Amino acid sequence: MKKIINLNGTLVELSRIKGICINSEGFTEIKLAPNQIKILLSGRKEYIYNPERRAYELIDIEDEIIIEYPNTEYAYSNFLGLMEIWETTLNQ
Questions:
Q1: Structural element, H or E, at residue 79
Q2: Which partner from 3, 22, 38, 56 sits 20 to 30 angstroms from 31, CA to CA?
Q3: pLDDT at residue 26 is higher than 50
Q4: Cβ pair 48, 56 in contact under 8 A
Q5: Whether the model pTM is above 0.85
Q6: What does the alpha-carbon distance between residue 74 and residue 88 come to, in Å, rounded to a whole number?
Q7: Rounded (10°) CA dihedral 16, 18, 23, 25
Q8: Secondary element (H or E) of residue 61
Q9: Is 29 helix (H, G, I), strand (E, B) or coil?
Q10: DSSP 1
Q11: Taking CA 19 as the corner, what is the angle to CA 65 and CA 92, rounded to the nearest 5 degrees?
Q12: 91, exposed or middle or buried, with CB in 10 Å at 0-12, 13-18, 19+?
């Protein structure tokens, strides 16, 4: 069974996490506020309809979740807890 955790009201499947960052620009151009954590999930493939070609195309989608916390200290505390849980899950 896959492990799912609740982060400030957002459910995240630990096996899909590719990266986690806090208080930095991280992996994209989005600059995080000091009270936010960004979670990058592993990519997925999805078919979308291209009206110009009149055909479905398979594209890669990179999902990310930005979770906002009440303050920086709470965000950092949750970041450290999440890193510990994620590391434990990866080592199993």
A1: helix 72-90
A2: 3
A3: no
A4: yes
A5: no
A6: 21
A7: -130
A8: strand 55-61
A9: coil
A10: -
A11: 115
A12: exposed
